Input
Amino acid sequence: MYLVRHGQTALSAQRRFCGRSDVRLSAEGRRGVECLQWSGPPPTVAYTSPLLRARETAKLLNAQLPRLVWQVEPRLQESDFGQWESLSGDELTERYPEALLNWQADPLGFVPPGGESVLCMAGRVLNFYHQALELHAHQTVILVTHGGPIRVMLLAALGLPLTEFWDWDPPCPSVSCIEVGERTTVHYFGRQA
Output
């Protein structure tokens, strides 16, 4: 299973919260996707998050993978940061100091105002992940998604607790490759050009 994090956007370049904000790839983000490289068997099944930055990444990957038919999968969307969308860390500290403290105290269960928790996002991603493993056993799958969902699937594959969610951060754009079977293997994580 190839886990592809979408290319860079203007928001990600500025280190702003970008969950459900439906933004395009930046020019640098498009160039980065075009330079992605991976090794292993070619994918035969392809899914993408419905968010524009993921769909644009999938479209750019068609140059390398022309025979794939991309299926849009809503469960692969990034976390919804609600009122925190598009804010920087400094703006968050200024506007929502108490909520920020609550998030730091409970980073998995905290729900940003109008958004969703990491636990909620992980539930829908894991629902898709286990279904995909069952539906596509013995096939090579490529998923274009976001940092949060990639972390969740990687932790599930390795049998690690969700408390390690913040310890893994694949860059934009990048490819990670896991082989799931009797023994799970991470062939590489966060590979770029």
